[in-house]
Amino acid sequence: METPVSGSGQPSLARPQVSQFSLLSLILRGGVIISATIIAFGLILFLITGTSGYTADTGTKRDYTAFHDEANGGPLYFPLNSPEIIEGVAQFKPFAIIMLGLILLIATPV
Is the pTM higher than 0.90? Predict the structure, then answer.
């Protein structure tokens, strides 16, 4: 293998160039992996505890597909805004952790 030579006859010390696209792909892949890990952690926590971590969830079978809101007189099944997600993550509430992972996934443009 020959050493690259510059115009002056000296060996070239140029480093291999990292493509901007490969750097971007590493960042995007890392974002997806981090968000998937957070979602998986929240799901495992949910399966272990059997509750979402919110007041309306007592561990019995609930209708998680329905939208319920304490402000409208209904029970709260999941966090509804960013402060509730942050507070829920600090308290290790499974649904808040899953929501954080989903927000990170959405924030990672793929």
Answer: no
